[in-house]
Design goal:
disordered C terminus, 198 residues, Rossmann fold, single chain, 4 strands, 4-stranded parallel sheet, 37% helix, alpha/beta
Length: 198
């Protein structure tokens, strides 16, 4: 793996980014996280977040420390990555219906309102957002991207770990990456016959 490149795990919230961070850590990439957000029922294996990432638009100083490591950056913040560095992004994809169901369940557990927008409207906004992010990424000469489907990782962890390893330079421990995948955490599955195209 290129020690100067920054590996980024991204995607919509609840799309499997924490799982991917855990996989890459198991594979041998140092993770950049402050571990301030503790594991809970929604993410029992931890969130792997760095609070400073939320201020990426105004605070980019920490990126120097991210070289040779992997950091989680939600899709909405990718546009603030400065062009000074080279990035390899593992972009998590998950059916929009599953993302919405997972988010709703998380809000219910936290006692927060779930009816601010309809699922149809939220799904439309998510799809548009992902399309815009993908277009932006393709226009950045300093970014390489690999899209990874959450359900595919759970169905074929070893195969997907191998594909990710190849993208990142074929230096990772693929077996260890696959071993940390826990299908029991796949709690908001697509309804049979109603697959999302998100």
């Amino acid at each position: 793996m290129d020690e100067e490149k920054i590996t980024v795990v991204s995607g919509l919230p609840r799309s499997g980014t924490s799982m991917m961070m855990k996989m890459l850590e198991a594979g041998g990439i140092p993770v950049l996280t402050d571990r301030l957000r503790l594991a809970d029922e929604d993410n029992p294996q931890g969130y792997y977040e760095l609070e400073r990432v939320k201020q990426l638009e105004h605070d980019k100083a920490w990126l120097e420390e991210a070289q040779g490591k992997v950091v989680k950056v939600i899709a909405a913040l990718l546009k603030h990555l400065p062009p000074d560095y080279a990035y390899q992004i593992v972009f998590m994809r998950r059916g929009i219906d599953e993302v919405l169901a997972s988010q709703r369940q998380m809000l219910v557990r936290r006692g927060e309102p779930t009816d601010t927008l309809t699922d149809e409207r939220m799904g439309e906004l998510f799809r548009r957002h992902v399309a815009q992010v993908r277009t932006w990424i393709t226009e950045q000469p300093n970014i390489q991207v690999l899209e990874v489907d959450y359900s595919e990782v759970l169905a074929n962890p070893l195969g997907e770990a191998g594909r990710i390893n190849q993208f990142l330079g074929s230096m990772l421990d693929v077996e260890s990456m696959a071993e940390v995948v826990n299908p029991d955490l796949y709690r908001q599955r697509r309804v049979e016959g109603k697959r999302s195209t998100g």
